[in-house]
Fold:
Amino acid sequence: MQATASFKRWLFRLYGPEAAPIILTQRRVYVLPTKAGLTYAAALGFMLIGAINYNLSLGYALIFLLAGLGLVALLHTFRNLVQLEIFPGHVEPVFAGDMAHFSLQLLNRRNQGRFSINLRFEGGGAVSTDPAASASTLVRLPLPTSRRGWLHPGRITLETRFPLCLVRAWSYVEPDMRCLVYPRPEKSAPPLPLSAAGESGGSRSGLGTEDFAGLRSHQLADSPRHVAWKAVARGQPLLTKQFAGASTTQVWLDWFEMPPELGIEARLSRLTRWLIDAHAQGLAYRVRLPGKEIPLGMGARHYQDCLEALALYGD
Amino acid sequence: MQELWLFASAGMSLLPHVEHAPIWLTIAVGAALAWRTAIWWRRTALPSRWLLNFLVAAGSAGIFLTFNQFFGKDPGIALLICFLALKLLEMRRVRDGLAIIFLCYFLLLTHFLNEQGIGVAGFTLATLVVVTAALASLGHGGRPAADHLRQSVLMLAQAAPFMLVLFLLFPRVQGPLWGMPADAYSAMSGLSDSMSPGSISNLSLSGEIAFRVKFEGDLPPRPALYWRGPVLSLYDGRTWRADARQRKVSPHDTAAGPTYRYSVTLEPHNKHWLFVLEMPWKLPPDAILARDYQLLSKTPVRSRIRYEAQSHLEFVPGADESEVSLRRHLALPANNPRTRALAEKWRQELATDEGIVRRMLDHFRQEKFFYTLTPPLLGENSIDQFLFETRRGFCEHYASAFVFAMRAAGVPARVVTGYQGGEENPVDGYMIVRQSDAHAWAEVWLKDKGWVRVDPTAAIAPNRIEAGLASAVLAGEPLPFLVRTDLSWFRGIRFRWEALSNSWNQWVLGYNPQRQREVLSRLGMREPDWKTMTAAMAVLCGLLLLGLVFWTLHKRIRIDPTVRAWNLLSRKLAHLGLARRDWEGPMDFFNRVALSRPELAHPMQAIVALYIDLRYGKQNDQSAQQRLRKLVSNLEIIAKR
Structure:
């Protein structure tokens, strides 16, 4: 098994993640007949025996034309894949158990289209695409996730049987891509530990979304809903409206205040659930993990920071 | 869409078989196709598996009942047709589609068992384009129909050079590899080894080509064009038959006059005879000359063959015929008393055999005899009836009556059948001999002269020998269309077409091991055996493949010279750590470079200004492009300092 794997690694030149752009040069595109192709060859063999036996001169011509067609199909299939360029694209973080989608740009520099190219990760679903002529095509490759942390998708198999299904051309690429997988949110978690907020005292003056409290300079992570568009219209720089959350509750998501019998993953799972709920309810929250503490905050950026900290806990 | 392609493929592959398949099968397959189209149109469900199994069993049983076997040409084709039609009804997955396509390819091949003409080749090619387009549609269903068609034509065009190389160089093997099924050659027409009244006049209604002849040098005069075929010396009162017991002889008899060299391309007739001009002098190899000067091949002629021969028009064959043999040529059944009486009367009146022969011919000439394709039917004493009552007959009647009378008068005689005449095609110089040229004449044995040809038909209808059948028969007789002389424009077209199909036969269909060696040595290959042929084939196919690989990898992208110069600039500046960023416009790039390397600002300014003008302005001439190129090239020298 080990030997087969290392032979395969040597044969297909699989040396780990590659830098972009990945160009499918002719040395890394492989072609072999499909089962249909072998049947086709066998059928031609039988036909040839028939033509010899009955001295069918036109039969010879037909069989030789079909044999030529097989060779031409080999090249056409090869051509459909070769010189394709692959650029890794954006990967959206997902929760464990959800489907991760890896975006790839397929650049077809040829001024003819390519058709029916299938891409898939090992263990992932296949995606078929027709990269148009002299254009770049976006594909999103699904891969199921199970564990939190960085997901390295491994190699992608690109394959095509276009145009005649008689030949399969394929190539392996391993773009430098990874996906951040957040912990799986607990299904039936206890409610948000709002009571914990009371302990810090005076926390009700925190940031919220209800009462307007002034302007501050805009940050990239701020929601566009909070941009002071009127000010922008007057020619001022982007400003973000700040609101005082009269009813805003602070939530303190603390690793150490969880029931001691919970394991690491269970704690992370519950914290994730709470984070989701707190974010959805527009609450301000802070997260404390062993060796890491994220101060009070809210908004998309804060939410992602916290989730990332949970995802990468222990890395 | 894929379904439609598959329907079209199946339809076109099945169409040529309609003529040969059993009628019930044609009707059943037509119904199956209509049913399948209706299913597709109304989007209803395909028939269930058990129904299909039942239909397979029913179809196979029907074929077995029709042919009494499953092996052989016709039942095999019928089974293929049946399976193709039923597979259409079982079209669920891509795999079924592939099976349909492979069946179509097989059916295209089997059609060549029936016919291999130019028309068939053209239709097969058209079908091949459609079937291959159907195969392409299986590879990608979503493309428009025209794309599949274009793909198919492109790929077949690229495959054509391979076909040529393989066709020329693939070492040919003379079939058959195993015994042929008995029904392989059922439908061939031609002379047979027996002759009864009506057999040759029936053959004369066919315009089919019997053989073609190419003479080296002059053509013999038309009245001398007697193509010798089966010699019939046994008579049972109605039918003349060939004597199967024959010894082999060599053509040693005295021959004089000019030698005619020619090659004959004989259409298959499933019999042993080879036709040669009377009398053969040099024989083709693998041929046997029988005692009665019939030229025979060792195996029945089952495919179109070509042989060379030489003949002399003047000859004295069989002067040394044995007593036993001559007695055999006098044997007669005891009927036709009136003819016998007449012959015996002549025997007493006339002294010599020649005299009797002449007397008989005079009889034909002087009495009211007619030469016709539609003679009345004859009864038991057919020769009496013909000579004394009906007096209307075709060549077999005259030959038969003549030989009978000669034998009755004690002159050894026999019937010779074959072809008389031939028509030269002015387009390619080949002489065409048709079934309508079939003829029967007589030979009598005269002391010191051997066997002498006597053609009684020439006495009745000299035009038959001088100008052919069409001018000899009465007006209004049912002649084959191709033989008629009154359509000269049509004859011109026909000559061209027949010359074309002759070259097709000679060079495409007749490309056998012998022809292959001939062609290859003419192309400069010394001693072409299978090893050199295979090597040449591999090399040529490899070269073709290389050409196609080049086409495959060749990027057909023409980069604008302006852009190329600009890319060169970007690459050069990248060495200085000033790579142009993908999103950076020319001005931004220039500003950045000028800031970090002020010494480049001046030369860069000219380049950028020119680039902007070329790329976004109106300027678009070659000299400006060259100037840009030069500026960029010169820049390197400055940058290095």
Chain B touches chain A through 60 residues (CB under 8 Å). Residues 194-483 of chain B form one domain. The mean pLDDT of chain B is 83. Chain B has four domains: 2-169, 194-483, 513-553, 561-640.
